[in-house]
Amino acid sequence: MMPTHVTLVDVGPRDGLQNEKEPVSTEHKAQLVAMLQAAGLKEIEVTSFVSPKWVPQMADNLAVMAAIQRQPGVRYSVLTPNMKGLEAALPTKPDEIVVFAAASEAFSQKNINCSIAESIARFAPVVEFAHAAGIKVRGALSCALGCPYEGEISADQVEHVVRLMKDIGVDHMGVADTIGVGTPRKVQAAMERALKHYPLVEVSGHFHDTYGQALSNIYACLELGVHNFDASVAGLGGCPYAKGATGNVATEDVVFMLNGLGIDTGIDIDKLVDAGAFISGVLGRPPVSRVGRALLAKRAG
Ligand SMILES: CC(C)(COP(=O)([O-])OP(=O)([O-])OC[C@H]1O[C@@H](n2cnc3c(N)ncnc32)[C@H](O)[C@@H]1OP(=O)([O-])[O-])[C@@H](O)C(=O)NCCC(=O)NCCSC(=O)C[C@@](C)(O)CC(=O)[O-]
């Protein structure tokens, strides 16, 4: 049942940087994308088409999409929470768009300023227009393992929103532990609900490492056969509307674990460490990734 190949989406340029208070230049963002594709990443979440008042760091979305040097075989995705976002994104020719809902009403309000039902109504035309343009739609489901405002989230709540997303035609379901509180059995229970409505190939895990559980949770997903995960180079990231949530699981850490398990990712860990060192240098702090730090220390002798 354990997969032999895992596909990683590096969400560093988007999720990783969206919460940075100091502006990161468009050039540095494009350079990060270039280094990730050089490391062998085949899926990269580049930016988001959201309100610049809400997330100022993503205000250069058009410029970033224009600046990246696309490689054949790499898929570039962007977040589009509504039709305004999709209309802005379409001319930049993303390979995939991401609509993001929440399993909790409170988080939906804080993050996208509407109820879960309203968010689904906003996404429906986005999905329809994206499909008409031949673009795949990934869904992200925030707070699937817990909410910073409501606390516990049940598997029933997860399944309820998964079903709503499925009903409007969302192609892929990303189960997200926004605040990193999930533990392996709970993660499996949430994943199983997504797997009731989506095939294995269209379910992914998105874990934050706030409580140090992310790798265990990925392992728990592998046990179910799940083989798509989001991760963020250098462990960058965190949602601006989930106070205290730390970064995504570091791509370097996931690749190191998968290498040890003999599971192929197609990613060159040394080049990935270079990408992590690069963006950490830009941000003026060491990589959060334990593997990144260990391999850099080993290189330094
Ligand atoms: C969703 C909205 C836009 C609703 O925001 P709203 O205020 O309800 O929107 P509105 O339709 O009432 O419009 C208000 C203003 O926003 C503008 N506007 C409206 N839409 C857009 C757009 N697409 N792009 C640019 N501008 C937009 C619109 O034009 C108008 O401008 P004004 O007339 O006042 O100048 C807002 O709440 C928002 O941008 N939220 C940011 C959400 C976000 O980016 N969160 C972080 C990403 S999600 C995440 O990180 C979690 C994830 C996916 O990684 C998984 C996990 O770990 O959980």
Automatic annotation (TrEMBL):
Recorded family membership: Belongs to the HMG-CoA lyase family.
InterPro entries xrefs: Aldolase_TIM (IPR013785), HMG_CoA_lyase_AS (IPR000138), HMGL (IPR043594), PYR_CT (IPR000891)
Gene3D superfamilies noted in UniProt: Aldolase class I
MF-aspect GO terms: hydroxymethylglutaryl-CoA lyase activity; metal ion binding
Region (Disordered): 1-23
CDD domains: DRE_TIM_HMGL (cd07938)
EC number, as in UniProt: 4.1.3.4
PANTHER family per record: HYDROXYMETHYLGLUTARYL-COA LYASE
Record's protein name: hydroxymethylglutaryl-CoA lyase
Coiled-coil parts of chain: none
Catalysed conversion reaction: (3S)-3-hydroxy-3-methylglutaryl-CoA = acetoacetate + acetyl-CoA
Spans through the membrane: none
Pyruvate carboxyltransferase domain sequence ranges: 6-273
This protein's UniProt keywords: Lyase, Metal-binding
Uppermost EC category: lyase
A Pfam family per the record: HMGL-like
Top-level taxon: Bacteria
Pathway: Metabolic intermediate metabolism; (S)-3-hydroxy-3-methylglutaryl-CoA degradation; acetoacetate from (S)-3-hydroxy-3-methylglutaryl-CoA: step 1/1
PROSITE patterns on file: HMG_COA_LYASE, PYR_CT
